């Protein structure tokens, strides 16, 4: 048998150099890209890599020589994701006699007793729960749960007991034990020596989100907008001086079937003396990529915030929206046909009027950069110059030149009233008439523009046969009236809709 040239290289032989690149997606995963210098002998080599995240996806690993794509091949890759723990050592000690340190309660004296591990009670492969589903998880947990008979079983002085008699003391650590998640590679190279390589992989445990603070002056609706990027690292690895990119958009990922998928459905460095660079943004495929202007150190279990946008004097418009329709729970179990012919359906009134802030994401508004999805907190300065919180809403991914509407809460001094004034239905000739009267009262000291939204929910074929004022058609089953109501004034809107089927 031909002898293979196998060289065990420790982590120092796969040292990183250059800048680590980190692309974090707003779907709770990231791509890690590192440059590594490998010292290899011609032929086959063995290499262990331990400075990786605890949530690495093994099938996403890419290793290539930056100068010659065919210079290195991965013959085998093993991913040891179950690092050393007391439970794992107990399992490896099954059938063996161990020393246990026991504390005597009366004297607080410690003594050593011996016990034979008959069963460890250790639950392996917890990382596979999501992949293999609920039944697999139940079976695995049965090894460790008391109900499943999975407690440790130890023989002490010829007697059997459930549970450990004390703190286990193990022998010297096995050289093959893994203290961290580890990648074991069997590599082949056509030429020995140093190889500059690029190593990349997808990992969980990293996320980012955008949040915004909008501050309006004491009067008026021109506001200042400050945007934060919040980075969270729960990956099990520190990233120092990493070049960070943030991907915004709905990137498609194949989701595993089974229990885990169902559960998800329910569900700083020193500053430079010069002016620091902000965040640049560009289109990438069907998404938007944001690049932080300076390297970032992101430690494990750390949450870091970086400012990515600051815009002053963004013009906005205060509007009010009245949607008087309220869902009537009495008809939830009705069929669509029966519900739509029920005279009282849709007659419950919602008196609340929404207060909205509308602005355009454009250069003319001192913005114009694609805004990633995130929460917006709104503040207004009081007469003492201090900011007071007035509401919070969330925006979706918003391209430039699109209009943004923020819901700040329900208006206190503007109220609505909606009532049905007439209803007729002729099932023989397949038609229906319905009339409404909507009143909106403005108790403010200033004029208020109110957009009155009406849903034509009874049927898809309709015609407005009478109206007190003009309306606009928002979609196939929604119309909108706009009224400017003077201070301490009232607007009355009436209309009749004729349905046919």
Compact summary:
With 501 residues, the chain is mainly beta.
Question: Any key phrases for this structure?
Answer:
5 helices; 501 residues; mainly beta; 8-stranded mixed sheet; elongated; disordered N terminus; 4 domains; 6% helix; Immunoglobulin-like
Write the layout of secondary structure elements.
Blueprint: E1 8-9, E2 16-25, E3 29-40, E4 43-49, E5 62-65, E6 72-80, H1 86-92, E7 97-104, E8 109-119, H2 129-132, H3 134-141, E9 153-156, E10 159-162, E11 167-169, E12 182-189, E13 193-204, E14 206-216, E15 223-233, E16 239-248, H4 259-265, E17 279-284, E18 287-292, E19 296-298, E20 302-314, E21 317-323, H5 336-340, E22 352-360, E23 374-381, E24 387-395, E25 403-426, E26 431-442, E27 448-455, E28 462-467, E29 472-475, E30 478-485, E31 489-500
Parallel strand pairs: 1-4, 2-16, 14-23, 21-27
Antiparallel strand pairs: 2-3, 3-13, 4-12, 5-13, 6-12, 7-8, 7-11, 8-9, 9-10, 14-15, 15-20, 16-18, 16-19, 17-18, 21-22, 22-25, 23-24, 25-26, 26-31, 27-30, 28-31, 29-30
The proportion of residues in beta strands is over 45%
Q: How far apart are the termini?
A: 84 Å
Supply Rg: 33 Å
Query: Average pLDDT, to the nearest integer?
Result: 83
Q: Write down the domain tally.
A: 4
Q: Determine and state the CATH class of the largest domain.
A: Mainly Beta
